[in-house]
Amino acid sequence: MAEFVRPGGFIRQDVGKREWVDFVKGVAIILIVAYHTTLFLNSIEFDAAGIGRIKLVLELFPMPAFFLISGMFHTRVADWSFADLWRRRLRQYLYLYILWSVIRYVFYLVAPNVREDGAGQSAQDPLALLGILFWPISSYWFIYALFIFTLVLWLFRKAPPWVLLALAAVLSVLSSSGILDSRNVGINRMTEYLIFFAIGAMFHRRVYSAVDAVTPWKAIALVGGFCGFGLLATLLPVVNRVPGIAFAGQLLAIATGFALAYYLVRLAVLEWVLYVGVRTLNIYLVHVFVIAMLVAPLTLFPQLDYLLPGRGLLLIAVLVALVVVLSIVLTRYLTRITWLFVYPFGRKKRTGAAAAPAGAVRPEAHTPGEVP
Predict the structure, then answer these.
(1) Residues 196, 68: contact at Cβ < 8 Å?
(2) CB-CB neighbours of 121 under 10 Å
(3) pLDDT by residue (tens digit) across 287-327?
(4) What integer pLDDT is reported at residue 123 of this predicted model?
(5) How large a percentage of the chain has pLDDT more than 90?
(6) pTM of the model
(7) Which of 213, 263, 335, 359 has the highest CB neighbour count under 10 A?
(8) Range name among 13-22, 119-128, 160-169, 318-327 with the lowest pLDDT average
């Protein structure tokens, strides 16, 4: 890429070999915030120039990318005993899932709930809360999925890799096309995304090598292919119901996103994306609460959907920026309460230099799939 680099302050010269991973995470969490923001806005009949169709494209990249990256940090679980698996991964995921589901329930007992979809209706239902291990009801299904996926990966540790890959691929194709439908968003997403977690865990070296080998022209070709697919999926949403099409689109989106991240991470003006990327867990855990508090007052101003430039798209951009910033600021203080982010029982106390303040408890440096 030497011919593409120009001297000056626009290109970073200190880029780490794997920094593109944090860049992908930063972009992905921003897109997840945007997606959830549109869900809240749609619940108050805020359409924002037909953003609903664009959501079809937004669904192609963030979660598959997160699960693939998470799988890349689970490459050693096959060598662990179940006791080690429980101690080093499973208990943390289960703890975070249950804890933050309870926090969400308490939050919606006192905060305005403007969502009218399934997640909104169940937010204040104590029976729904009791059933979260069988019937996920919130965006925290992602953490529960990591618990299930990690356990599945360990259970298949002695089987040939193609067994799990084939099973996960079939589930993904059936689920993404709507043929397999549990009537639960979390379960549907888990059956759809297991394949990406498995790919990340089993082919992490090949993923790294493929990204390192990306040339500018390959990246441009991938962008062109994804733009074409995205246009088709936006104009003709029915194509996503053709078995295998959505899965192919997700693979194309991941390849395009990883290739772009490999080069965009070098731009000094985008260095802030890395800052966001190493704090994805923080943002993920609290962003829905921030969205709820920001969107609720908008019910008093429905005309904004029509009066603002771009039919409200500007407002969505502002909301996403506010949610990301406020989530980071909020969790900067919340991380001082370490048990909100790290399993607190049976952990050895750190001494000396290791006993860093809560802000250094590094949950913010990991996605939920990378909890230490």
Answers:
(1) yes
(2) 13
(3) 999 999 998 888 777 666 666 655 567 788 889 999 999 99
(4) 79
(5) 64
(6) 0.88
(7) 335
(8) 119-128
What are the Cα distances from residue 227, in Å, to 232, 273, 326? 9, 22, 32
- Give the model confidence (pLDDT) of 97-141 as tens digits: 999 999 999 998 888 777 755 566 677 888 889 999 999 988 899
Residue 296 neighbours by CB under 8 Å, 6+ apart: 111, 112, 114
Q: Are 296 and 43 in contact (CB under 8 A)?
A: no
User: Over the stretch 267-282, which tens digit does the pLDDT of each residue have?
Assistant: 999 999 999 999 999 9
Q: How far apart are CA 286 and CA 292, in angstroms?
A: 10
C-beta separation of 302 from 44 below 8 A? yes
Q: Do residues 185 and 137 make contact, with C-beta atoms less than 8 angstroms apart?
A: no
The structure tokens 């920094």 sit at 19
Backbone angles phi, psi at 267, to 5 degrees: -85, 120
Neighbours of 134 (CB within 10 A): 8
